[in-house]
Amino acid sequence: MKALLVGMGEAGSGWYRRVRSMHSELELAVSDPDESRRERLLADGVPFYTDAKEAIEREKPDFVINVTPRRVHTAINHLAFDYKLPVLCEKPIAENYEKALEIVKRAEEERIPFMIAENYRTFAPLRKLKQLIEAGAVGELQSLECEFFRKRQKVALEPNDELEEVIIHHFDLLRHLSGREVGKLFAVKRHVFHIVMDLQAGIQASFRCSLHSAGRETQWPGDWRIEGAKGSLTFKDGEIELTTPEGMQRWTEFGDVPAPTALQEFLAALAENRRGETDAKEYLKNQALAHYTRLSLQQGRQVDTSASWGYGPADIRNFLRAERKPSQSHGGIGMVEGVRLFGQGDFETPLKFLYYSVLPPGTSIGYHGHREDEEIYILLEGAGLMTINGVETRVGPGDIVVNKPWWKHGLLNDGSEPIRAIVFEVGKA
């Protein structure tokens, strides 16, 4: 495969060295508007261009690594998409949230792989921390706290630019470690950024940050304290401690923890035809939190962030207007009418389907079972005879019948009016 690296500034030079040393299997070309870089690249035998479009047309790369300054991200991403090229882009996605929404929407509509090179979650200790949380080491999560203090020497950031340049990493870690989204957020900043967040499942989170701090510096991922119903986890100075009523455990070595780099994950996702771990559609939620933090600072109040979760508009389907089809149901009597309103692919939970069924007089749903699934009948109109595990029960409007795993059941309309019912099935979690 051939990669086009666009951008050879401080970050781009680091990417260049890593690609050359860790991915010798990749062909590489470079584009940067600074002509003075040409001699060095050509000495390495790497094609160099000052124009990214010319580089794409002449080198015909398989994908683009976008390491340009933030203000240039959108233009380079669009250029790559014009040629249907997958993109691995340095964070943030774009120079502001509105442009990030726009570029992610285009990648989704045109089905172009688009991943953000988030690296904090790839650190082996953070991978271990995630493993411990998922294994239930502290039980049900209750709170997450992160403190990040550094004295930034090299680059003077504009006010609040640290949101997209630095704090976005910690937003990603918060969502990654908790497995939950942020629902509400309140931010203040004087000398220190202080952000308080309410997550799904009642989890509380807080983040304190300064890039102008004296004294002990935290590592770049920050110091973390994670409280759960069974204990707590701390991450500080590259070490993890787990404290429970049974005692304390410490991890200082993480050589056995798989920790693929962002580029390794991107290449694996391309080869396996799947979304990358930090796919841009997912990573957009991190840039949304930067956007909502800025809104909270401007408005001086708590803001609701749930619109950024990416669930899209409500999916409303009308069972009264749906076209029903006749069929014999589970070997029952006569032909019943029904329509599958939702299938398993429409749900994110173990729900399997939702039907609207109409049983004309004299018809039935045959006696049957669903192994480990549960099936629920909600009777809207009509009356009949429901058989559950060999026992007949009279049912009518308003009745809700739960058929548990391995139970047998059937429904006969022995009345003079149609039975109308909503039926849905839930699989084992």
UniProtKB/TrEMBL annotation:
GO terms for molecular function: nucleotide binding. Residues 2-112 form the Gfo/Idh/MocA-like oxidoreductase N-terminal domain. It comes from the Bacteria. InterPro entries: Cupin_2, Gfo/Idh/MocA-like_OxRdtase_N, Gfo/Idh/MocA_Oxidoreductases, GFO_IDH_MocA-like_dom, NAD(P)-bd_dom_sf, RmlC-like_jellyroll, RmlC_Cupin_sf. Pfam families: Cupin_2, GFO_IDH_MocA, GFO_IDH_MocA_C3. Residues 127-233 form the GFO/IDH/MocA-like oxidoreductase domain. Residues 357-423 form the Cupin type-2 domain. This is Cupin domain-containing protein. It comes from Paenibacillus albilobatus.
